[in-house]
Predict the structure.
Amino acid sequence: MSIPTVDLRDPTEVVARQLDAACSEIGFMQIVGHRLDPVIEQEAWDIATAFFAMNTEAKMSVAIPQGDAYGYGPYKVERLAASRGKSSPPDLKETFSIGPFIDADEMQEIISLDPAAAFAYSPNRWPTELSEMATVMNAYYDELARLCERLLSLMAIGLGMSGDTFTASIDHHTSALRLLHYPHIGSNDVAPGQLRAGAHSDYGTLTLLRQDDAPGGLEVRGADGRWHAVPAEDGAYVVNVGDALERWTAGRWRSTLHRVQIPSASSGSNQRQSIAFFHNANWDAVIDVLAPCRPVRGDVAEPITAGQHLMERFLSTQQGE
């Protein structure tokens, strides 16, 4: 199985068909021709590298407090496989998560309507040692959000719908930017069944991933039940469908299981870095099956707000500790 590459510079109708096919057949693709600002991309990558190079005390100064969503996630804390009801050792990674950059008055208005939304709008935390981090990550966050809006517009066209189908559901999105670092691991550092990131699906609409070419990388489970590596393609972003979009399309688009594998013992230096952008709909957006995807017979999932869906999926990763 190979992951298709879609060039966004191709004609709209061609791109829309290719995106629909990739979402339906695999749920994963690589995209090129995205026109992201290369300066902002590199600045964000370099800041991520600098953050993970800081000492433990500095990183823990911005650790995620209980009940919040953003900040530093220490090594071997998260268990992504738990979101699928699986018991597993903790993932061999550390993270730094960043939430929406939103005006305080707007945030309070949303929270006043649903106090549970405070989770998605919990404060961002920035290390004092990297004074430029907030500015750089805000710029990168906005670049990636615009790319997701463009992709969702093209994907809607691929369904035979208007390009603005998703617009009203994502104009106050609750997306998260996540920096990921997988430290070097030796042959004696891995427990039975342990992975760098356990098998899981993502929770929102789309995920964009920039990955390096280090050993022990991303794998996708194909329809054949086997795991297939997703190679790092120069200048490309890996894109995959999340659970919310699968639900929106009654399964026409697939939210596919994926994981980050342990490198082979002979791989040498295997430290790895990536940056993921988890695009989510507005907190109060209603996920209801789109008309072209509604089956003639059979039941479909009940409508649910994107906020409730996100909370249910996120909290499941905290189980089994």
